[in-house]
Each structure stands twice: as C-alpha cells, then as structure tokens.
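Anyone? Bumping this.
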Amino acid sequence: MSNVIETRLESMGITLPVPAAPVANYVPFVATGDMLFISGQLPIGPEGMVKGRLGATLTAEEGAAAARFCAINLIAQAKIALGGDLGRVKRLVKLVAFVACTDDFTEQPKVVNGASDLFVEVFGDAGRHARSAVGTNALPLGAAVEIEAIFEIA
Amino acid sequence: MSNVIETRLESMGITLPVPAAPVANYVPFVATGDMLFISGQLPIGPEGMVKGRLGATLTAEEGAAAARFCAINLIAQAKIALGGDLGRVKRLVKLVAFVACTDDFTEQPKVVNGASDLFVEVFGDAGRHARSAVGTNALPLGAAVEIEAIFEIA
Amino acid sequence: MSNVIETRLESMGITLPVPAAPVANYVPFVATGDMLFISGQLPIGPEGMVKGRLGATLTAEEGAAAARFCAINLIAQAKIALGGDLGRVKRLVKLVAFVACTDDFTEQPKVVNGASDLFVEVFGDAGRHARSAVGTNALPLGAAVEIEAIFEIA
C-alpha cells in the first residue's frame, strides 16, 4: 500500500517536504499503541508560510490552499514517524483545525475542506476522519491555519 | 443499559435529532479500538442553530442552553456510531468546548456546564469527563458554541 | 522512578499544589486503558492565577512563566490520578495549549515552551511530547494560558 500512496502523491504532483524539526522541547509526533499523534502543523508550502487572517487578507479559497499545505506537512511527519512507510497508515482518525480569522468570519469548514479533501484524495476512504474546525484570533508566526492529527497505524 | 439511557432521555423530554451528514470529506465519528471520536458539534436545536457571541449578543445562560444542544447532538452521533445502542457507552472520556465570545468574556466554564450537566444527567457517573473550555473569536456559521467528544465504548 | 521524579521536582524547588476539584459536572482527569486525559489547567501559581493577554498586558516571558504553572498543575493532577506515583508516567503524549492574546501576537510557541521545557526538565526524554500551540481571544476567568494533556501510563 505504501507504493500506492507514494504513487498517488506523485501523480498529484505532491513532493513531501522534509519538515524542519521543532526548535524546542517538543517533538513532531508521538506514537503510542496504534495511535500516532502529530503536532499542529503550519501552512508552509514551497513558497514559504501562508500568513494572514481569513475575512481580512485571505479569501476562503486561499485559506483552503493553506489548509492543504498543513495536510501535506502532516503526511510528511507521518511518513517520518512510520519509518518511511505510509502504507502503515490504517486510517486518519481525527483533525483539529484552527483558522486565523476576523470575528465575523464563518466559513471555517470551507477552509478546512482544503485539508480534508487532500486526505481523501491521498488515502481514499482511509482518509475520512472526524474533525473540529474552529476560528481563532491569532496563530504562531502569523500562520493562517494550524492543523493537528491523530492517525491509526499498523 | 441502552433502555435505561433511552428512558432517561425520554423522561427528560429529549428526542435525539437525526443529524445531517457532513457535506464534505469528513465524517461525524470514527471508532478505533474502544475509543469513539465525535466531530465538533454545533448548537443546532429544534428551532435552528444558536448563533452569536457570549459577552455581546448572548447571556451565559443562553450559552449554556447552546452547549446543551451540542451535547444532545454528540449523543445523537454516538447513538448512530454505536448502531443505535447507547448502552455501549462505557463512559464519556473528554470534551473540548469552544465558546464564541468577546475578548473580555470569562465565563466559558459556566457556558460549557450546559453540556457537562446534560451528560451526567443522561449517563450518570459514566457521563463525568475531562474537559477543556476555551473562548474563540469565531465559529463556523456563526455558531455560539462547538464541542467535540471522545467516548470509551464497549 | 517515582522517587526520581519527586527528587527532581524537589531539586527544582517545585512543590506540587493540591489542585482544587472542579466545581461542576466534570473531573480533572479520566484514565482509559493506558491513556490518561487531564482537563485543561489554568496558570494558577503560589500567588494566584496569571491573568491577562499576551501582546497587551503580558510579555512572552511572563506568558512562559504562566505556561509553566499550567504544566505544574497538570503534573499535580497526574500524580493524583496515578495514586501518588508519578513513576507510572510512561511518557507525555500530547499537549494542546491555548494562549490568550491580541490579534497580532505571534509568539505562542515561545509562551508554550514554558510548559514544554518544564516537562522535559522533570521527566527527561519521557517528557518530550507532540503539541499544538494556538492563540485565543479569551480564556476562563481571564487566564493567560490554558493547557490540556494526554499521558501514557503504566
């Protein structure tokens, strides 16, 4: 299955980044039993981090693109956690997604769909997950979106 | 025990709604092992969704009523996840509750008690749970409260 | 190992507080299987609770000190949950940290490091954890930081 996932990522034109290690006393992921917890990932893409606030400097579409970068970074971390073998992902269990936004922005779900869609595109039904999507007034380094994940692994 | 729970809900005058399926690539719940993760639920009641912000357009009491609707929707999702048998709930493990509010609102716990109280009323001691209650500047569709849950199931 | 942890706390000059029980229908912790979920803890220290907002009334250093109090309170709750034996902590799995802040504050990670550093100082490598650090416009009782935790326990 690993090859299936890798092939799918390739066909989607996605190259998993080599994520930078946190420069602090926490780690990007912890596996316990068959659960893999991934730290909140920021929307860092090939051209840097997507900064800004939904409802002010970013449209919902731009927010969805940012959420997609968070998802790619979550997958990149999962790959490292699983020794390079994404075939060990049994399913994505849950996402919690925080969207930096103005007080009157209400389209957080549309933004977070950028991540949810990517997971289903990559993992198929195993990518369907429970999730919470909420707004926030501010995220680290001015990021537009932050998403954490729990995977079930083999 | 299923009948006990159903009878209690009935005696409380609560009819579990048939929740709408998410219109996106996520699902309302994921069970893994004996853990059931339920997606963040909004305060949709018989008369629609409770919208607004605590500290501005809603009182703490109205917020607690909204949190209670979130709890009812969490139970409704759990019932579907468990094939209709709420007797399979071993306990509620944890809630994370987000309260849409003004910057100076500080009564998030009082709001979230609307959900916590409902769970104990319905499930007894098995309804006692760990929780986090926080504020946020904005929630999906203008909702006043969003709550996610983890149940332990048999 | 319990004595090791206790000795380390002592050498750091940390006396674990006796946390107040929640005055509501929730509990400070729930253990299920080998997972221990601790409710969101506020930055209550020997001189009361650290209130305020980062970016306005508190510096990042003061925020980190507040996050450290949250961590101490999480450890105090874990000790009670484990019948007094912190040696039963196998590892800290995950933190979710909410930092009350202004809309333009971006140093949430620096604030939350106050908690992450404490955990590693106390538990060594077993204290390294996955985490999410986000901002919020308001927390219960005006708290500056709220942090919840999941531990793996023996």
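Late reply, but here is one note on the structure posted above: Residues 29 and 38 of chain A are 4 Å apart (CA to CA).
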